[in-house]
Amino acid sequence: MIPVDESLDLDALGARFLAGICSQDWEQVASCFTPDVRFRALIPTGLKEGEGVASAVGYLRQWLGDANPLLLLDSDVRPMQDRLGIRYRLRAHEDQWYIGEQQVYCDVRDGQIERMDLLCSGFRPEIAGVGE
Predict the structure, then answer these.
(1) Which of 41, 79, 113, 122 is deepest in the core (most CB within 10 A)?
(2) pTM for this prediction
(3) Radius of gyration of the chain (CA)
(4) What are residue 67's phi and psi, to 5 degrees?
């Protein structure tokens, strides 16, 4: 079991990551990662992998950076034993409204994410009355 004070640090890190994503503040998102972060993502088109902050933030920005607005519908941040779990559902507008969800599990070192494994639902066109 992880100590209580370490759990609070994980909660704060998760909240900071989410706030950066939702505000599309890529510098804030970058501050959540170690310089040598390992990033892996399974998205509908396949597996994406990268090492380093620029790669990790680059993928997230590529997927979420053009949305205007980007709205947080639901989220959950919780330590999973020695890992950090973050789940968020977003409503994004580009040419129309889309709904997408991402689930991440992170290894944390010294208050920053050193490994992120992400699973993405893909951003699906919003259908009125579905999922409400």
Answers:
(1) 113
(2) 0.88
(3) 15
(4) -70, 135
Q: Determine the Cα–Cα distance for residues 63 and 45; give it in Å rounded to an integer.
A: 12
Find out whether 116 and 104 touch, Cβ atoms under 8 Å.
yes
Tell me the three state secondary structure of residue 100.
strand
Residue 4: how many CA atoms within 13 Å on its side-chain side?
Answer: 0
CA–CA dist 53, 44 (Å, integer) = 23
Query: How far apart, in whole angstroms, are the C-alpha atoms of residue 105 and residue 78?
Result: 10
d(CA 11, CA 83): 11
The Cα 86–Cα 129 span in angstroms is 26
Distances (CA, A) of 17 to 49, 68, 131: 19, 19, 25
Q: Which two tokens stand for residue 77?
A: 């941040």
pLDDT 10s digits, 40-84: 999 999 999 999 999 999 999 999 998 999 999 999 999 988 899
**54 Cβ neighbours under 8 A, 6+ residues apart:** none
- CA–CA distance, 37 with 59 (Å, rounded to integer): 13
